[in-house]
């Protein structure tokens, strides 16, 4: 019964996150950390979240790219800056209260962004940021993503939208590719530091459910963002964040 609940949670998260071009790692971390797999260790949780990200972000990018929303001039500088630092972050061994604090902050941030349902109606500048801005920004997000175990979309998307560098659909396409490459970089970093520990018997069912959810979410976009699912996801993220903190009290 618990395994079914885990798969259902991953399925719903993949629908919601892929609808805005995200892979869903922060949500996957929340679900897995609240389950029997929560005791598997931080490195284990990160690796499975990255693996699921690869599949969902790839589907999301395909749909947004096919619809004509991908802007390589906007995306590539962020990616160039992020890749080496995502590998470094994935290489580092961050355990105990430091990792749990970083993960909890990330989960709370993700919940906060999901709670913000109002879209910015301001005029989009559509001005590509200077390389002196985009490359360091990508580097910082990549490093944080490698340490925490996410793809970085929950950090990159708000920045681009806040600066009005692109419209939400273009941001979704950029985030999807950014997430995919950072997730791969994180896994590579974990591999070269001998931390890689993937059990296909566990991973394959998870991949199957997120593939289905990712397809539905990215195909229909924001129309699939059911308010009930969003509210439940926010609750799960906050509970998971609180759980990590309470373990040290």
Structural account:
The protein is mainly alpha-helical and 249 residues long. The protein has one domain. Helices cover 75% and strands 0% of the residues. The chain contains 10 helices and no strands. Helix 4 runs parallel beside helix 8 and helix 5 (96-115) packs antiparallel against helix 10 (227-246). Mean pLDDT is 83; it is low at 117-121 and 222-226.
| Class from secondary-structure proportions | mainly alpha
How many discrete structural domains?
Answer: 1
The coarse silhouette is: globular
Gyration radius, rounded: 17 Å
Specify the biggest β-sheet: none
**What's the tally of helices?**
10
Order of helices and strands: HHHHHHHHHH
Helical residue percent? Answer: over 70%
**N- to C-terminal distance:** 30 Å
Number of strands: 0
Strand content: under 5%
Average pLDDT metric = 83
As residue ranges, the low-confidence spans are 117-121, 222-226
Keywords:
249 residues, mainly alpha
